């Protein structure tokens, strides 16, 4: 379906969801919902995605899957879930599908070709992820734009093609120059979904909490927040807290009432005398 959309020139929209609330909001708007390992830094308070485990991902995927999304539900393979052998990778990815995902996403290029082939052979659709891959933060020396040297740029184009040939149905391109992402997109048959990769991709992805301005951490320049969700929610919560403190909450319409016949026995009730 994604390849058809690509041929039709329809730009794909993907965002993240980590629980039932965000999943329901996203599902009414986007084409692809990603239970991203970004849950680690966005929701769980980690500095990066490396501490995110399969158990954490399964927990969040199950919450999202219970909402029965109509969008394509993709689950992100966390660090170390696809590095320790093909059998374990298939078990982890297959477990995602058993929990309701329709596909998995994993980071990396040439080194992942064998794994991608093995997953696709097991009927597990795979979305690739190239460029600034957050799980490689330690080898990249930080969260830095990738593909700026000739070697890196050509390697990325090569990796993108090889991932497509290995069976990936789409590719996330993150944190790379716009021209490079555009070139990858025009040379591939599968759709590319960009994040910090310019407008020449087949679609775009942003983290849900970033689009809604819910985070208060440093925002990279490719993030456009469409509202100040943090302020909006904080204002609403403060309003409620003020109403509680002033006695304006709850109103009588917001309270349950006893039947009138019980008013007298309740008013006449006294604590039983307690024998020593
Ligand atoms: O984990 C995530 O949210 C991602 C997207 C930003 C592509 O990998």
Explain what the structure shows.
α5 (86-98) crosses α6 and α8 (150-166) packs parallel to α9 (178-187). The protein has helices at 2-7, 20-27, 39-42, 54-65, 86-98, 113-121, 137-140, 150-166, 178-187, 208-211, 229-246, 263-268; strands spanning 12-16, 32-35, 72-76, 103-107, 126-131, 170-174, 192-195, 203-206. The protein has 12 helices and 8 strands. It has a single domain (2-231), classed as Phosphoenolpyruvate-binding domains (TIM Barrel, Alpha-Beta Barrel). The structure holds 3-methyl-2-oxobutanoic acid. Residues 16, 34, 36-38, 76, 172, 195, 205, 207 line the site of 3-methyl-2-oxobutanoic acid.
How would you concisely characterize the structure shown here?
This protein is α/β, with parallel strands linked by helices and 276 residues long. It is built from 12 helices and 8 strands.
**Top-tier CATH class:** Alpha Beta
The N- and C-terminal alpha carbons lie at a distance of: 77 Å
**Strand order of the biggest β-sheet:** 1-2-3-4-5-6-7-8
Ligands present: 3-methyl-2-oxobutanoic acid
User: Unreliable stretches, pLDDT < 50, 5 or more residues?
Assistant: none
The tally of helices reads 12
Structural class: alpha/beta
Following the backbone from N to C, one meets helices and strands in this order, namely HEHEHHEHEHEHHEHEEHHH
Mean pLDDT: 96
CATH superfamily: Phosphoenolpyruvate-binding domains
- Portion of residues in beta strands equals 5-15%
Total domains = 1
Query: Under CATH, the topology is which?
Result: TIM Barrel
Quantity of strands, as a count? 8
User: Which CATH-level-2 architecture?
Assistant: Alpha-Beta Barrel
Coarse morphology? elongated
């Amino acid at each position: 379906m994604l390849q058809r959309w690509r041929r039709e020139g329809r730009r794909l929209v993907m965002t993240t969801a980590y629980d039932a609330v965000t999943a329901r909001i996203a599902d009414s708007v986007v084409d692809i919902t990603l239970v991203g390992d970004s849950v680690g830094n966005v929701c769980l308070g980690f500095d990066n995605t490396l501490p995110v485990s399969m158990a954490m991902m399964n927990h969040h995927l199950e919450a999202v899957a219970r909402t029965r999304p109509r969008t394509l539900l993709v689950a992100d393979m966390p660090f170390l879930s696809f590095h320790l052998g093909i059998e374990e990778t298939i078990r982890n990815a297959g477990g995602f599908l058993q929990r309701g995902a329709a596909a998995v996403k994993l980071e990396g290029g040439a080194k992942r070709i064998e794994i991608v082939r093995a997953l696709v052979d097991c009927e597990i659709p795979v979305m690739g992820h190239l460029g600034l891959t957050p799980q490689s933060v330690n080898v990249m020396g930080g969260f830095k734009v990738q593909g700026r040297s000739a070697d890196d740029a050509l390697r990325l184009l090569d990796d993108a093609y090889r991932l497509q040939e290995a069976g990936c149905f789409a590719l996330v391109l993150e944190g790379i120059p716009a021209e490079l992402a555009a070139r990858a997109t025009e040379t591939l048959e599968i759709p590319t979904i960009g994040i910090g990769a310019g407008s020449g991709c087949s679609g775009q992805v942003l983290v849900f909490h970033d689009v809604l301005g819910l985070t208060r951490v440093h925002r990279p320049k490719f993030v456009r927040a469409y509202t100040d969700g943090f302020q909006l929610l904080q204002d609403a919560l403060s309003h409620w807290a003020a109403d509680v403190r002033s006695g304006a909450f709850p109103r009588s319409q917001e309270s349950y009432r006893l039947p009138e016949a019980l008013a007298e026995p309740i008013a006449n009730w006294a604590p039983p005398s307690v024998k020593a």
